Prior knowledge:
- By secondary structure, this protein is mainly α.
- The protein has helices spanning 2-13, 20-35, 38-52, 60-86, 89-97, 102-132, 144-155, 159-192, 221-238, 250-253.
- Helix 3 packs across helix 4 (60-86), helix 4 crosses helix 6 (102-132) and helix 6 packs antiparallel against helix 8.
- The longest helix has 34 residues, at 159-192.
- It is flat and about 115 Å long.
- The N and C termini lie far apart (117 Å).
- Residues 241-254 have low confidence and may be disordered.
Amino acid sequence: MAILGTLLALTRITTSAVMFPLRVVARLYTTIMRGIPMIVVLYLIGFGIPGLGIFGRMDPAVLGTVAIIMSYSAYIAEVLRAGFQDVHPSQRASARSLGLTSGQTMRLVIIPQALRKMAPALMNDFISMQKDVGLISTLGAVDAVRAAQIVVAKTYNFTPYVVASVLFILLSVPFILLNDWYSAKLRRREQTGGRVYCQTTQPQRLPRRQPRRPTRPRRSCAWTAWSSALATTWCWTTCPLTSASTRSWRCWDHPAPASPRS
């Protein structure tokens, strides 16, 4: 079913002139199969094919499986086509400018981006298909629904229908929870802008930040003013180069004269 739906979707999105007849056939198929009710498809396949007498007698479960595949492949093809076309055309143009072929562009660029958006819809179709499998009992195949009908016809007790419903719930609930979890994960990724790494690219570890060296504390303005006043007082009182009337900062510019040798 998934393979048939993928082939139909790829056929519908191709732009080659050679594929035009196949595009028309794929579009007619998806349109007709989505318009026919599921129970009618089961009757056409389950009773029509044995009535032709071409393939002989066939198992009703096989005929029912073929009918479900034919019906749900049309729905899956439309979901896949919408997902492929939802990818921005610049992605395809960028891939082709890098030298990738059309097949490589679809396999490496388009499909990985589209699957993240199509996964919730595909899971919903799978859950619906899982419930519609019970319709195969109309062809005579014995499944949970048919077994419940047989028991009810014998005992006139409708509890087997409740048991069949519980079995379908047990089969569907895990996929429903998985669908909700994956949808919430995609929503958080889009809101937070999380990074996605390729399979061949490993996330690079950032270098460890070196601890900052301790710096000497700066002296306060009061300490600076006090030391400047002390140096000025010493210069005015002990500098040997100037007299008392011309004492200045020249003692800082010239070293003190050496004492005369005796």
